[in-house]
Design a protein that fits this description.
Bound molecules: zinc ion
Number of domains: 2
Strand content: 15-25%
CATH architecture of the largest domain: Alpha-Beta Barrel
Helix content: 25-40%
CATH topology of the largest domain: TIM Barrel
CATH superfamily of the largest domain: Metal-dependent hydrolases
Number of strands: 15
Shape: globular
CATH class of the largest domain: Alpha Beta
Structural class: alpha/beta
Length: about 425
Amino acid sequence: MARAARPTFIRAGQLIDGVAVEPRTNVVLRIEDGKIASVEPWRDALSVEAAVHDYSEHTVLPGLVDAHCHLTLLGAGLTYEQEIGVDDEFMAVAAVHNAGVMLRSGVTTLRDNGARHGIMFAVREAMNHGLLLGPRMLIAGRPITPTGGHFHWCGGAADGVEEIRRQIRRLVQEGADHIKIMASGGGTAGTNPGLPSYDVAELRSAVDAAHHYGRLTTAHCRATRSIANAVEARLDCIEHAEFNEPADLIQHVAEGPTHRARWDGDVARRLADSGMFASLTLPGSGYVAYRELLERQSLIGSDALSADQQGALDRGGAVMDSRADNVRRFLDLGMLPRLVVSSDAGPFDIEFGKLYQGLEVAVAGGMSPMQALQACTRVAAEACGVRDHVGTLEAGKQGDVLVVRSNPLDDVRNLRTVVAVFKAGRIVHQTAERTTI
Ligand SMILES: [Zn+2]
């Protein structure tokens, strides 16, 4: 009979457990067989008895849960049309690389919301065999989309309820953990992010087929009417939650975001009343350029930018303010317990491992730093159907832990100061500041 492994102890100067409103200080996580056995006050006697990872100077929090990313894309400023000119083999290698980036940033669970063919099933299989190190992966495989619809190049086109049902059966057979459906157009050329792409009956058939197999559903919703349809069809979650109209001209430009977020109070109220989760992907494309301009200006002063750059910065600032305003309105509608902050890393210039960017916008919209951290840990885990295993640091949960040097409750961007990452109680990444004793 196998002997029980020795427990591991992770000492926390400050512990954010994903549940409590206030952090705890000077506590220790006892990890047995990869899971948290207890969370207790620290006692000095432990350092004599057992091996302790000592983070008494640091903040310990649950490994992050990124509910929306696309590991097979590069996050390097390319359009979808530029991204898809490579073979599946290349995309698989990119996914392996990006999984590593995500893990090192503190993401220990991710949901891949759409990739070509069966690439992500193979990547997950390789990880489960220990061939690569990455976060726990929940995989949608090919998103369901109409012929020529957003992400049609993944191979998941389905028109009408029969084809949708068939596609879902196939995906489940191949190993899909959840079903992603494109309820509106998006950044794929030829599609319109202001227009719905499925009617309520089609979305409803997807929900029925997915739930039949015990799979959750999430819908890409960038159009007001797509949110209304998804609410009526009772999806489990919607992504983006944007309120675009058909005539809106939305461009993805490298110079920075240009399209101010709209709001539709009536549809938003229906969403809030529905009990569905909303996974907000707040920075969006163009954020990197905007942030660079902002930093240059704050470092060098107001004359650091050309007139063009100043214009791009002002436009980007207005867009970010409008997105933060929408967070505030969702909070006013009582959505906090079901608001998830996700990255959407992969498309355009949305980089991997920078979940804190979305948290920053959420805080600007009125979430406290603690609420924002819970939105990408506990609430995200709940939205992904894995709250029983991950998302909080409580007895019985997986030992998925992120350690950071600077206090993220002072500034959520301090999530960048990663010291160590644990998955199932095993240290999978640490920076030079090693404090194990
Ligand atoms: Zn996406």
